[in-house]
Amino acid sequence: MNPPDSRRLQFTPELNICRILNGMWQVSGAHGAIAPQRAVQSMFDYFDAGFTTWDLADHYGPAEDFIGEFRRQISATRGTAVLLSLQAFTKWVPRPERMTRNLVEENVDISLRRMDVPSLDLLQFHWWEYRNKSYLDALKYLTELQNEGKIKRLALTNFDTEHLQTVLENDIPIVSNQVQFSLIDRRPLVRMVPFCQKHHVKLLAYGTVCGGLLSERYLGQPEPERSALDTASLRKYKNMIDVWGGWELFQSLLSALQLIAQKHGVSIANIATRCVLDQPTVAGVIVGARLGVSDHLQDNARVFDLTLDEDDRSQIDAVLRQSRDLYQLIGDCGDEYRR
Q1: Pairwise CA distance, residues 70 & 66, whole Å
Q2: Whole-prediction pTM
Q3: Residue 167 maps to which CATH number?
Q4: Which is it for strands 15-18 and 8-12: parallel, antiparallel or unpaired?
Q5: Into how many domains does the chain fold?
Q6: Alpha carbon of 144 to those of 120, 134, 150, 179: distances in Å?
Q7: How far from each other are the two terminal CA atoms of the chain, in whole angstroms?
Q8: CA 303 to CA 305: how far, in whole Å?
Q9: 151-199: per-residue pLDDT in tens?
Q10: How many contiguous H segments (helices) and E segments (strands) does the chain have?
Q11: How far apart are CA 300 and CA 91, in angstroms?
Q12: What is the dihedral of CA 126, 296, 27, 183, to 10 degrees?
């Protein structure tokens, strides 16, 4: 049994986070319609269940606005002190063009206004084109804004190991990198995890349950037609499964996970999530929140009391050894966005 505080991590000296972060890509419009009032109201359910940490981005539709409205509502009903228990990690994803101090600050100010915060808890920076070295200029200006108090901590999203190293060598104070990490996509284990261990950089993992594909819903089911994959997440991670080893091998993995889940009295998604949380340097996993549509709060909470043993890991590894090497096929973390 894990200790009672296993759900939380002291991410930085000033940020204590829930190790399952609520992912807000699902409100971007690529996962179906979201009713704003119902969505914000459902954020109270997450918060009250202890899921206090949110992952979002400037381009996730109204995500930053939802954070701002939730902050106003929870402050009005419960007092401003409760805001100290809420963490919201946003991203800035600019076009790869020349970066100026004014451009960088203008975009940070937009997020500050939308989220109604005096300082961004964590700004996670993404860059599309490494050949354009302006990302170092952007990060330099972001560091200046951090020193001025507009940002608490700086992080990266989908940077590969080589360019994470370049950033650190330029004295940019990065605390984490957000990468795809799951039983299907274990590329971070090749270079990213060892590098982050050495340099004290944490990882935030997304895609851990493959948009819901790693669940009982797909166990024993025929391979779905493209038209049946009705969210951007399902389509994205089904493509990863195709490259990884295909539907037949995926069914073998689901069957193995089901046996382990039954043994522990949890779900397949719980096993998949725990496997990634147990990896070195992983601070937390991001699980999509379909606000006002559905939630898995009770199921997700079971992860924190789950401990996998060596026999469990051996059963999983026996299937994973049959898969293709995604690092060789795709490249390092984030390379799929730059091909």
Answers
A1: 6
A2: 0.94
A3: 3.20.20.100
A4: antiparallel
A5: 1
A6: 14, 16, 9, 25
A7: 43
A8: 6
A9: 999 999 999 999 999 999 999 999 999 999 999 999 999 999 999 999 9
A10: 12, 10
A11: 24
A12: 30
